[in-house]
Design a protein that fits this description.
By secondary structure, this protein is α+β, with helices and mostly antiparallel strands. It contains 1 helix and 5 strands, in the order αβββββ. It is elongated, with a radius of gyration of 22 Å.
């Protein structure tokens, strides 16, 4: 009975390890830069006055029915990220943009 219990535990540990390995492989296969967020720029302390600097951005959550033509809204999640504007112009405060994660930074692009 005790030996059977140890065999069952070993099998469960192997299954868990295999699942963890599969998860690691699936995450590792994703290309850098494929994560994106909808954000809204805001003045956390002092709003930037030039284009190619970091902006404080509120993370937004798109909600609504996922049906073609259905209305949707962008709800503030309360989370804040700092995104580098790779564009040529300064976005007005409150501008809604897509932020893309590249390497270890968030990037937005506003060209006016």
């Amino acid at each position: 009975m005790i030996e059977h219990q140890y065999i069952d535990q070993r099998i469960e540990r192997e299954r868990l390890a295999n699942l963890a390995d599969a998860l690691d492989r699936s995450v590792g296969d994703q290309a850098d830069g494929d994560a994106a967020l909808v954000v809204r720029t805001f003045a956390e302390t002092s709003y930037p006055t030039t284009a190619q600097v970091f902006y404080a951005c509120k993370v937004l959550d798109p909600t609504g029915s996922e049906l073609e033509g259905a209305a949707g809204t962008l709800d503030d999640t309360g989370a804040v990220i700092y995104a580098f504007n790779a564009g040529s112009a300064k976005p007005p405060e409150g501008t809604e943009l897509l932020a893309v994660h590249t390497g270890d930074r968030w990037v937005i692009q506003f060209n006016g």
